[in-house]
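Annotators were shown the component list below and the corresponding predicted structure, then asked to write short factual statements about the assembly.
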Amino acid sequence: MKTNRINKLYADMKSKYSIFLVLIVLFIISSIVDENFLSLNNLSNISRQISVVTILAFGQTILIICGMLDLSSGSVLALAGVFSVSAYIKTESIVIALMVAILVSVACNIINGLMITKFKAPPFIATLAMMTMARGAALLYTNGQNIYQIGDYIKLGQGFTFGIPTPIVFMLVILFTIWYILKHTVLGRSVYAIGGNEEAANASGINVDTVKMKAFIINGIFVGIAGAIFMSRVNGGMPNGAVGYEFNALTAAVIGGTSFTGGIGTSLGTLAGSFIVGFLDNIMVLTRVNSYLQQIIRGAIIALAVIYDIWAKSRRTKGTLGKVQAKSK
Amino acid sequence: MNEGIKLRVSNIEKSFPGVKALDKINFAVKKGSVHVLCGENGAGKSTLMKIINGIHQADEGDILIDEKIVKIQNPIQARSLGISMIFQELNYIPEMTVEESLFVGNWPKNKYGKVDWPEIRKRTISLLKKENLNYFPETKLKDLTVSDIQMLEILKAISYNSDIIIMDEPTSAITQKEVELLLKKIKELRDRGKSIVYISHKMDEIFRIADEITVFRDGCVVDSRVKEDYDMETVIAQMVGRKLESNFPKEDIQIGEKVLEVKELTNHGVFQDVNFFVREGEIVGFAGLMGAGRTEIMRALFGLDEYQSGEIFIKGKQTKIKSAKDSIQKKMVMLSEDRRRYGIIPVRSVKENISLSNLKKFIYKGMLHSKEETDTIIDYCKKMKVKTPTIETSIESLSGGNQQKVILAKWMLTDPDILIVDEPTRGIDVGAKYEIYKLISELAKQKKGIVMVSSELPELIGMCDRIYVVTSGKISGELERKEFSQENIMRYATQVIS
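Structure shown to annotators:
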C-alpha cells in the first residue's frame, strides 16, 4: 500500500514536472554549446523577446483549458496597440494609453465570447472571424500607415521598473495573476471543469456561459497589455505587426502541457513552454542554424509535444487503472 | 428435421467480461410467421439478435438457416444470407437522400465503374411503387420522421431480398398511428412468406402481431409457445419470475411533510401531465420500461431540459427551475444515469470532482486548494468508503462504483433536501451496489426526500416506500409498499395508453 502510494506520487511528479526537466536540460545543453548563452545580457534579452508572446500564451492557456482557443490574439493585439499609441500621442499619459489598449482588446474579446456562448459558434471559427476583422480595423484606423514618433511610450517596452526590464515585470505580474486564478479561484476550478466535461460541469451547477465570457475577458486584458508592450518595443504603432503571434502563443501553451482536449494545463507549464521556445530560438541563432531549418525544428517540437501529451494521457489512465484492478483482486 | 423452419438458434452461449449474457438459447422461427421475443431490459434479447446479425460472435452453439449451419462473422455476411436487422436506435446520415440511403454500400455501377444514378432512381421508384409508399427519392433523411426512416429500413431489407427481418423494439420511438402502419406492413411481409423476429415488451402489440412468442429472462429462454397458448398474465409472470434478493438495507423511517410536489408537468411528445410527490424520509421509486420517459422527467425537473407547462413545489413553495444551478440552490440535486456524460470530469482529481458544486464553501482566506478543503474531502471519502490512492488521483482511474460514490459525495456536500438518483447502480459491481443502497438509506434517515429511478425492479421493490410506474411519458400507476410485486409493476409498465 505504502509503496503503491509512493509510486503513484512519483508518477504524478513525473508527468507534472517533466516539462521543467526538459527546460533545465535544454538550458544546460545550451550553456555548453555556446558560451554567450549564459551571459546575463543574453538571458535578459531572451526574456524580453518572449514577453509579448508569453503574455498572449497565458490568455490562450485559460481558454484552451476551458476547451476553447483564440486565433484573433495577434490581430487584436495590433488593433489595441495602434489605438493605444494614438491615445498616448493625444494625451501623453501612459496610464490612459494602457487603459485604451485594454478596453479595445476586451471589447473584441467580449464579441468573441458572445459569438461562442450566445450564438454557439465554434471558438475556432468565431476567433478566426475576429482575427480578420481586427486586422482590418487596425489597418483602417491607421490607413495602413505606421505611427511613428511615439516619444516616452517606448518606456513601456524598453524601460526598466525596479531595475528589471518593464516587459518582464508585466509578464511576471500576469503570470502571478493567471496562476492565482487557475489555482485558487472558483473561476479557475470552473474553467478546468468545463474543459474536462462541459455537460457534467453544467449539471454540477456551473454557469458555463458566464465562465467562458470571463475567460475571454481575462484573455482580452492580457492581449491589450501585450499590444501596448509590443508597439513600444517596435518604436511605433504598427497595424501590420504581430502577424501569426497567436500561433506562437498556442505553441508555447501546447509545449507547456496544456491539452487541446481540455481540462489540463498550468500557468507555469506555459511559462516553461515559452522559455523552451525562446531558448531554442536563441541557441539556433547563436550557433547559426539555417533559418529555414529553424522553422522545421520548431514545428517538429510542437508535434513532439502533442504526441507526448497524448501518450502520457493514455498511460496515466491505463497505468492507474491496472493498479486499482490489481488491488481489488 | 422440421419442415418450414427458416431460422433456428441452437444452444447459443455468450459471455461478456463478468456476465453470462446468454445461456443455452434455443428457439426456431417458422417461414411466413412473426416471432416475438419479449423480456425485461437486459434479458439478452438484443445480444442474441446481434449474434444473429454477426455483430457479436457466440461463444458456443450454432445458427441454422433452412436447417443448415451457417457461420456469420459480420453484418454483410448476415445480409448475404438473407438476414436484415432494423435497430432500436436507428443510425442514419441526416444529409443522405432516400435513394442514397436505400443503396448505400450496395451501389449499382455502370460499365465505367461509376455509380449508376439513373439506375438507382429507376429502382427506387419501382420499389416505392411496389410497396405503396409515398416518398420522393430526393428527400433528405433529416426531413423525415423516425417512423419514415424505419419504413425505409424495411424497404432496404426488402430490396436485399431478405427472408429474415429482425426488428428491435421498433415502436419505442413512434406514435400510435405510426405503430398501426408498421404493424400492417409487418403482417403484409409475413403473408409474403418472410420471417419476422420482433422484439418488444408492449403486451398489446405483442398479442396483436405474434404468431409465436418466446420469453427471455436473465439470459435464458423461459418458454416458447404459439400465441394461442399464451395470455398476458402468463407472459408477464414469465418475464419477471425471478426471486427477490432480500438483502436490501431498507430502514423504517418516520415519513414527514412533502418536500417535492410536481403537478401536470408536460413536455409535449416526451412526457405529459406528470403528477407526483415526495415526502421527507421517503424513497419514491420510478419504474418503467426503457424509453418510457422517466429520465426525461427527472432531467426537466433538475433544469437540464425545458418543460412547457406544469408546476413544481419545493417544501410547499411554488418554484420554477431554470437550470441545474438553480435546482442545486433550491436544494434539489440529481445523480444522472449517464455518469460519464453528466457526472464526472474525467481528467480532474477526486478532490476537484467532489468540491465542484460547493466551491464557494471551500474558499478560505480568498483561496481554494486550502488545507480545509483537503481535510473535508478526505473526511467525506472515508465516510463514503471511496477507494482511491489519494484524493489527487484523477477520477477516471477509479472503478465505476467508486466514481458513483464520488458523485454522491459531491451532492451530499450541497446538503440537499431532495436527491434524485437515476439508475444509481448501473454498471456497478455487487459489493459497491450494496454500499450505495446503504448511503441512500442513510440519506433518507436524514429526512431527505429521495426519488429513485431504476430499471431493476428488485432494487425498487427492496428500497422504496412508494413506486410510480411510467408508461409512454405518463404515470400509469402508483403502488404502495404492500402492493409491490414485479408482476404488478410490469402490468402497469407494459400497458398501452393511447
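Statements collected:
1. Strands of chain A lie at 160-161, 164-165.
2. Residues 318-329 of chain A have pLDDT under 50 and may be disordered.
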